[in-house]
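Researcher: Sequence of Helicase-like protein follows. Predict its structure.
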Amino acid sequence: MTPLLRLVQGDATQPVGPGPKVIVHLCNDVGAWGKGFVLALGHRYPAARQQYRAWAQGHDALPFALGQVQFVTVQPYLHVAHLIGQHGIARKDRKPQEPPIRYEAVREGLGRVRDFAQQQQASIHMPRIGTGLAGGDWTVILGLIEAELLAADLQVTVYDLP
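Model: Prediction complete. Tokens:
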């Protein structure tokens, strides 16, 4: 049996393995797209950036709010999941009292990802979501991944850049 969680070195914008795939990343609730993983994601899949921005500007029926997820098909059998799990944005010029990560929103969003991945019979691929600009604790986020994705027997691959 293949382990459900794989930690690999590689580029999460180029997921590996057979079958349909969902690339999951964390977004903020202010509609900013300009730092971290999204730069590479938007460069490789411009439609993902365009649809996220349209969603943030209210051009999508789906509410733009914490815990929501927008799914964008960027290639046949390849989807990007924009998961809103960060309140505001971190700035170097001011230290927030609380990091932007919102764990309950991440949990809720991962539940939506779970449902979508099950419908698509897809594997899930992501960088270490929430640990960069969002300021999250990987141990906590890994617990959410275990509860929402691995408990549903979904294959999850987490990528670290070499």
